[in-house]
Amino acid sequence: MLEARNLRKVYGAIEAVRDISFRVEKGEILGVLGPNGAGKSTTMRMITGFLPPTAGTALIGGHDIVEQPIEAKRLIGYLPENAPLYPEMTVVGFLDFVAGIRGFRGAERRRRVESAIERCRLTAVRWQTIETLSKGYKQRVCFAQAVLHDPSLLVMDEPTDGLDPNQKHIVREMIRAMAAEKAILISTHILEEVEAVCTRAIIINEGRIVAAGSPTEMKARHPSGRLDEVFRVLTQGTAEQTTAHR
Amino acid sequence: MKRCMENTWELFRREFRAYFESPVAYVFLVFYLMLIGFLTFFVSRFYEANQADLKYFFFWFPWVNLLLVPAATMRLWTEERRTGTIELLLTFPVTLTEALAGKFLAAWAFMTFATLLTFPIVVTTMWLGNPDLGAVVGGYVGAVLLAGAYVAVGILTSTMTRNQVISYVLAFVICLFLALAGWPPVMDIVNKWAPSWLVNGVAALSVMPHFESLQRGVIDLRDLVYYASVMTLAIFGAYLVIENRKST
Ligand SMILES: Nc1ncnc2c1ncn2[C@@H]1O[C@H](COP(=O)(O)OP(=O)(O)OP(=O)(O)O)[C@@H](O)[C@H]1O
Ligand SMILES: [Mg+2]
Q1: Across B87-111, average pLDDT
Q2: Pairing of β A76-79 and β A63-64
Q3: Were both Cys, which of A8, B35, B37, B79 would link to A55 (CB 3.0–4.6 Å)?
């Protein structure tokens, strides 16, 4: 469903993503792990067509994101980092706009909005303006926007960042509920999340993939059998340098 | 083609509604009308001159729009950048051209709405005297086209920064240049030191001759071409700015 091919991104003097390739098939949830500044968000921005790659490309359901961006974008649902939303719109107004942009009209459009509201448990706040919502609800409105058109590929940048344990649980439940018929890409710093929802994971450090495999395989890489130890060994030291030369 | 129109329409609708979702729009409209009314009736000495002539009314549009159009456009792309919604907008299955067209048309429609709300002033003069109807239509066509050119400039400057004040100031400066470039007092000063080809070149950029010729009730193809070129150039500039720096 998704194939990232030798993605590379250079911002001026900073090489944020060096050479990243991976595949995600339908039914899989791939977790992208990495320290701050590793290049997770940059990778996702290239896959979703927001940023043009310096080199390489991504294929979404066979459509090249660089060559056929519109066809590729139709298949993607994207939850960007920090869940950006139009603050002055109501929840219903915003989702209705997204449904229109996704090409739904008339009764189908209303049905899509209603089903997204229901699936993301937004009924209680549907008429509220987005700026008055709590962080957990904002995250879910942005999630609703990403799944409204039932995309084949769902890309989520830190979907549970800053949420309380109950909200985290709700979001993970929603992700699991959709896993069977989609390819899902999630970035996170929370290692337990990888064990909780992902079928596979990659660890990125300084713009490169330094480890890949199922959570069980990953854990076997360190005698302690713990994911946080593996993460530390693979990304430590260098992470400090990254911060320093930035 | 149909798809393109539909996308632009959806984006236009969201943006146009966004104006009225905040109280700022109402304050803006009231201020706009009060300013035009005040300038027309008091500053132009409308009654004293005892001329039921709309010349004094339309005279003010380039200056009032100079002050207010940048305020109506400064939010358009700066806020998309600041709040990060640009990342949503540009990962939807729409082209950048559609996104730009939607915003441009929404802001232009909003300014057209503000312009047409001044109609009571025209009715008052019609009542007092008997102005030429062709001149009224021409004057309004000119005012709307002028607003369109300023809106396009405002869109361009709003893509350049994530700060609304900077966007306002840049748009103000560029529009001021467009307004003053052909103005006789300014041209006299420029004439003293600049070669004549430069003077003529600069004067050709001015909105004023095009604005004034429409006020006489003559719709000339050259004026339309001028406005279309300013709008196209500014929007194309905005396209290049966004393409080249999306994430900062
Ligand atoms: N617009 C930009 N201009 C310049 N450098 C950038 C830009 N965006 C990101 N970077 C740099 O690229 C590198 C990777 O950033 P990125 O946001 O992809 O990291 P990340 O893995 O998502 O980090 P985090 O976990 O903190 O979200 C960082 O060094 C960052 O400073
Ligand atoms: Mg990030």
Answers
A1: 96
A2: unpaired
A3: A8
Phi, psi dihedrals of residue A49, rounded to the nearest 5°? 85, 10
CB A64 within 8 A of CB A5: no
If we measure between CA atoms, which residue out of A137, A93, A143 comes closest to residue B88?
A143
Domains in chain A: ranges and CATH: 22-75+151-246 (3.40.50.300), 84-150 (no CATH)
The pLDDT of residue B53 is: 65
Of residues A196 and A98, which shows the higher confidence score?
Answer: A98
User: How large is the greatest C-alpha to C-alpha distance in chain B, in angstroms?
Assistant: 59
Mean pLDDT of chain A: 90
Of B18, B87, B246, the CB nearest to A84: B87
Task: Output the average pLDDT for chain B.
Answer: 87
Domain housing B20: 2-246
Helix ranges restricted to H, B23-132: 24-38, 46-49, 55-59, 61-73, 78-83, 85-89, 96-116, 119-128
Identify residue B69 by its one-letter amino acid code: V
Looking at the predicted structure, is the pLDDT value of residue B240 above 60? yes
Q: Find how far residue A167's CA is from the centre of its chain.
A: 17
Helices B208-215, B133-159: crossing angle, 10 deg rounding: 150
The string over A19-38, giving b where at least 16 C-beta atoms fall within 10 Å of a residue's C-beta and e elsewhere, is: ebebebeeebbbbbbbbebb
Q: Is A82 left (phi over 0), alpha (psi -120 to 50) or beta?
A: left
Which residues does chain A have within 8 Å of residue B88's beta carbon, measured at their own beta carbons? 78, 80, 84-85, 145
DSSP helix/strand/coil, B245: coil
Task: List the beta strands (DSSP E) in A47-127.
Answer: 55-60, 63-64, 76-79
Q: What is the mean pLDDT of residues A86-111?
A: 96
Residue A128: count other Cβ atoms within 10 Å of its Cβ: 15
Q: Among residues B32, B33, B40, B34, which one has the least CA distance to residue B59?
A: B40
Ligand closest to Cα of A33 equals 1
> Please, what's the b/e burial string for B127-153 (b: 16 or more CB within 10 A of its CB; e: otherwise)?
eeeebeeebbebbbbbbbbbbbbbbbb
For residue range A183-197, list pLDDT tens digits in order: 999 999 888 888 888
Dist. CA A85 → ligand 1 center (Å): 21
ipTM for this prediction: 0.90
- What is the DSSP-derived secondary structure letter of residue A129? B
Q: Do B93 and A87 touch (CB under 8 A)?
A: no
Q: Which of B18, B90, B247 sits opposite A88 (nearest CB)?
A: B18
Query: What total number of domains does chain B contain?
Result: 1
DSSP label at residue B207? S
Indicate the DSSP class of residue B132.
-
Q: Is the CB of A166 under 6 A from ligand 1?
A: no
CB of A144 less than 8 A from some CB of B = no
Ion ligand 2: residue ranges with CB closer than 5 A: A 41, 81
